[in-house]
Each structure stands twice: as structure tokens, then as C-alpha cells.
Design brief:
This protein is mostly beta strands. The chain has 3 helices and 11 strands; from the N terminus they run ββββββααβββαββ. The strands form 2 sheets. Strands 4-3-2-1-9-8-5-10 form an 8-stranded mixed β-sheet, with helices on one face. It has a 3-stranded mixed β-sheet with strand order 7-6-11, with no helix packed on it.
């Protein structure tokens, strides 16, 4: 019998499940490929959380309408790829973010002073975890890149970590005159 997915730790349903608040998921499992590079459609496109621990990584989610865990031990991980999304800065003249950027403040700090949401955008961050038996591909908000990078390095995944940053499009450098 062939095992296709490493799902474990299914919780049982109780009468008081409606009283428990639903968890807020920060990640989306986009793709799950097993050893034969076949996509498991039951696992793809589900919301989940990523717990990074020194002994391994856990993907916790609601797979097949059950709370489940995909455990990945540190010894099984071949590589972890973090891809930062494209950063777009489009401020208007005399906005607080524009003034701070002209004074030389980095965009990661001055983005908190934007007036309109369209002034600063980062597309989604992609995380690809390649293991011996399977490959996971997750996406999350683009602003989580630095926190993920710090967490992976602090937990001891510096050797397995591959970083890729997409270019920054700063529309302040282009004159429309």
C-alpha cells in the first residue's frame, strides 16, 4: 500500500466545537507534490499555518475538513526557498511617505506613513520546502518576508535557505513632466 500524504494528528469532533474560535490562517498551501511529483489535489489550495521549530517545520491546517499536521523533520529538508514579491512604491507629492523616502528613510519604515493603500505594495511571498519525500509550496502576504527570514535563520536553517528578491519598482524616480 502506497502512502501518498503525510497527514497525522486528526482531532475528533466534539459537541462544543462551535464555541471554539476558528483559527486565523496566514499561509496558503498552493502545491503539494509527493515523491513521484504527483500533485495531491486534496491538499492544494488550503489555508494553513507554518510553525518553524529548530527540529523541523510543521504545516498546520484544515485538510479534508479535519485539523491536520504535515510534519517535516530538519534532516529531511533538502532546501527552503524564500521568494520575496515585487515591491511597488507609488506615492504622491508631499505625502508623508514621499517626504520620508526623500529624506533617506528606508521603505520598510516609511511604508507605515502612507496615506493611501496604493502608495506601497508588495506582492505575495512564496515559500518552497523541498524534502526527500515531497515538496510543499506556500504563499503568504508580502510583508511577512523579513519576519520569515529572521525566524528561519534563528531556528538554524541558514544552510538550507535560498533567497530570491524580485526587483523594486520605485515610481518616484520617473518624472512625468
Amino acid at each position: 500500500m502506497k502512502k501518498t500524504s503525510p497527514l497525522t494528528a486528526k482531532s475528533s469532533a466534539t459537541f462544543f466545537n462551535f464555541l471554539r474560535p476558528q483559527p486565523k490562517y496566514k499561509f496558503r498551501l498552493v502545491d503539494f507534490k509527493n515523491k513521484d511529483y504527483k500533485t495531491d489535489l486534496l491538499l492544494s489550495q488550503t489555508r494553513c499555518n507554518l510553525e518553524i521549530l529548530p527540529k523541523g517545520v510543521m504545516v498546520v491546517g484544515n485538510f479534508d475538513n479535519h485539523d491536520s499536521i504535515i510534519p517535516v523533520l530538519k534532516d529531511e529538508i533538502e532546501s527552503i526557498s524564500l521568494v520575496r514579491g515585487k515591491e511597488t512604491i507609488d506615492t504622491f507629492y508631499l505625502s508623508p511617505m514621499h517626504i520620508l523616502l526623500k529624506l533617506g528613510i528606508p521603505s520598510r519604515i516609511s511604508r507605515f506613513f502612507k496615506v493611501y493603500p496604493s502608495e506601497y505594495k508588495i506582492s505575495e511571498t512564496q515559500i518552497t520546502i523541498k524534502c526527500v519525500d515531497y515538496q510543499l509550496k506556500l504563499i503568504t502576504n508580502g510583508n511577512n518576508f523579513e519576519a520569515l527570514l529572521r525566524t528561519f535563520k534563528k531556528s538554524g536553517y541558514s544552510e538550507e535557505l535560498d533567497l530570491m528578491r524580485k526587483p523594486t519598482l520605485n515610481l518616484l524616480n520617473y518624472n512625468v513632466y
